[in-house]
Every structure is written in C-alpha cells, then in structure tokens.
Design brief:
Blueprint (H helix, E strand, L loop, with lengths): L14 E5 L2 E5 L2 E3 L7 E7 L3 H6 L4 E6 L7 H7 L14 E4 L2 E4 L4 E12 L3 E13 L8 H11 L10 E4 L5 E3 L19 E3 L1
Bound molecules: fe (iii) ion.
Fe (iii) ion (FE) binds next to loops.
C-alpha cells in the first residue's frame, strides 16, 4: 500500500526562484553539502517556463519568503508565466551577480548551476552557493503553513449566492453548479479533482 499523504509531512519552504528573464515559486530546496560554497538543490516543475530558462542560464537566486512577505509576490511568481506577463514589473528587485533578487524577502542565495537531474515532472537543479545575504531576521514561511492559510493569504473571496469551485492550489474561482468534464485550472493547470465546492 502506498499512502503518499505522508510526503506532506516533509518540511518544505516557500522560495522565489529567479533567473535572468524569469522566475517562479518553489518549495523543494535543500542544502546538500557544507563548506565555503555549499551545494543547494532545488526542484522545478518541467512545465514552468523558468525550468526552460534554467537549462541555458547558469545562475539562479532563491529569495526566502517570510511570514510578513507580501503574499502578492506568491501570486505574481506562482500563478503567472513570463510567457504572459512581466513579473519583474510588479515586484521590487535588486540585481546581484546578474540575477534579480526579491527585496521583500528574508534574504537570498545566489547559486551557480553545477548539475541537473531530469525526472518525469521536475528537474532537480544543483547549484553552488556563490553569494548570499540576510535582509530580515524573521521566521520563514513553511510550505505547510502556506497550504493551511492559502485562502486568507491569497484573499480568495467568492460571490454570495453562487456555487463556486475554488482551486485548492492557486485560489482561482470558477462559478457554476458543476465543473466541465475535462476542466483544468486556467491559472495553474491542475485538474478538477483539486477544486473544492463553496
Ligand atoms: Fe489553480
């Protein structure tokens, strides 16, 4: 028997991954070695445009989302694609080592790519830490906390008196008694099994 629910107990965080010309929200980041330039790994969904960029760019930044970071940053980087909007127009950044880092964060790590591992759904990028700074000494937001408080963080509201289906991943709202058979979320692309009726 395989009860994958247990994987939700793996502690993960909330990070804005940025690279030249793109970025997205990631949760699976680990430090995998120590020393002067420790290695850090990050998994990025293959369908993300950022994944494509990381196959050619050699540097990336991870900005750590804090409990007081504006959740709009999660919306901007998590539920849009640079294929459609310029995420950097909406969020304040600084350039470090040629990579934009998010100012409204706890700080950043700049990684230089050293390896990639391809999986079915994600690519695991491994990078060497070449630069880093701390902006604020506050608590980081865990992925678990984000999942628990997503609706308030993303300010999901539905109109009274209408049947609404809310995407449990990104907060997109669909109005209607039933979701169409082959429905997928137009924002984050998940299937209707991840929608909740309100
Ligand atoms: Fe969605």
């Amino acid at each position: 028997m395989k009860n994958k629910k247990i994987t939700r107990k793996i502690t993960q965080g909330m990070y804005v991954l940025t690279t030249q010309n793109g970025g997205c929200i990631v949760d699976a980041v680990s430090q995998i070695s120590a020393g002067e330039n420790p290695l850090v790994s990050v998994a990025v969904m293959k369908k993300n445009y950022t994944n494509e960029l990381l196959h050619t760019n050699d540097k990336l930044a991870l900005s750590i989302v804090g409990m007081n970071t504006n959740p709009d940053i999660i919306k901007t980087f998590g539920f849009n694609s640079m294929r459609d909007i310029n995420k950097f127009e909406k969020v304040e950044t600084n350039e470090v080592e040629g990579v934009p880092v998010i100012l409204d964060s706890l700080g950043y790590m700049i990684l230089e790519k050293v390896d990639m591992v391809e999986n079915d759904t994600h690519t695991l990028f491994i990078g060497k830490l070449i630069e880093a700074d701390v902006f604020k000494e506050e608590d980081a937001m865990s992925y678990g906390y984000y999942q628990e408080h997503k609706e308030e963080l993303l300010k999901v509201t539905t109109e009274a008196g209408k049947t609404a289906w809310v995407c449990t991943i990104c907060g997109y709202v669909y109005y209607g008694e039933e979701l169409p058979g082959d429905f997928v979320c137009p924002i984050c692309g998940v299937g209707k099994e991840l929608f909740q009726k309100k």
